[in-house]
Structure formats: structure tokens, C-alpha cells
Amino acid sequence: MNLLTTCLLDGLLACVVAVGFSVNFRPSRKILLAAAILAPIGHVSRLLLMQVPFGIVSATMFASMAIALCSMPISRFWHIPAEMFIFPSLLPMVPGMHAYKTILGILQILNEKTDPHFLSLVVYNGLTTLFVMGALVIGASLPLIVFREDGPLGRLLIRLLGQRAIKLLHHRGRP
User: Fold this and answer.
1) Is 174 within the bounds of a domain?
2) Nearest Cα to Cα of residue 22 among 10, 5, 7, 39
């Protein structure tokens, strides 16, 4: 499969996962639409970043930053807090397979299989899970914190641009 086909399939599956997760909580159609747009953006950007020399942790952090940055204009336009569609959009990037392999390795170690190979797999998969989850949190939170009106970049933009900056930074769903 070539890269374009892989990206399209990856984006489609990320969209299905994000919308499927969101539907459980009965959100508005706007939130579903935003999650359906943002999840493929994040997941495909992570896939593309992993094609160049980026590891899964750094690629996940930059992809979650892309989701957060793309959510800000949508949030301002619809007057909905960005977090409402950021979190479902991040769900396809949760490292479920690494977490599963960590638990499986721990169970194998507990069943008296003290092979050093199992221990190294547990440590590798556990640390990968931990760091990818941390990258998701940092990548999604950092743009929302930095670009707030009372955030460091927000205060600087308000000083430089005045009222126009407030309109640019106004993304929390507040009127």
C-alpha cells in the first residue's frame, strides 16, 4: 500500500473511532463534526511524522498539538469549549496495544516466567505507554494554555494588538 492510501485509510479509521466514542455521550452534531475532522488530522499527522525520523512519543505530542491548534478556530466559531472535541479526537492515538502488552508481560512474569525478555518487554511497553499518554496531555494542553487570553502569549498579543487580539484568542466558548 502506498503512503496516500495508508493516510486515507488511517484518517478514515481515526474518524470512525472518534465519532464512535463521542456518540456514547450524546453530543451535539457540531461536536461530532469537529471530532470527525480533528481526529484524522491528528492521526494522519502522527503517521506522517513517524515516517520521518520522529519517534512515537514526539510524533504524538506534535499531532496532539495540531489537534489543539486546529480546534481553536472551530471553538471560536461555534462558541463551544475546545476540550469538548479535543478529547474524542485524541482517543485514536491512545497507545492501547502497548498498554495491553505491558499487562500481558506483567501477568507472564507473575506466572513464574522470570525470563529477562519478559521484563524488558514490560519496561519498554510500560514506558512507551506512559510517555505517549504524557505527550497526548502536554500536546493538547500546551496550545490551550499558551493561547488563552490570560496566558503568556495571550497577554503579549493583547499588548501588541489590543482588542483584535482578544477576538483572536477568544476560543473558550465565552461570549
Assistant:
1) no
2) 39
The grid cell for 92 is 485514536
Cα 159 off chain centre by = 31
Number of independent structural domains in the chain: 1
pLDDT, tens digit, 9 for 90 and up, residues 76-123:
888 888 889 899 999 999 999 999 999 998 888 888 767 787 788 899
pTM more than 0.85: no
Placement of cell 455521550 in the chain: 25
Domain extent, residue 36, equals 3-169
Domain-located, residue 175: no
Q: Is residue 20 part of a domain?
A: yes
SS3 38: helix
Q: Please state, in angstroms and rounded to a whole number, the distance separating the CA atoms of residues 94 and 91.
A: 5
Strands (E), the chain: none
The C-alpha atoms of residue 165 and residue 171 are separated, in whole angstroms, by 11
Is 26 part of a structural domain of the chain?
Answer: yes
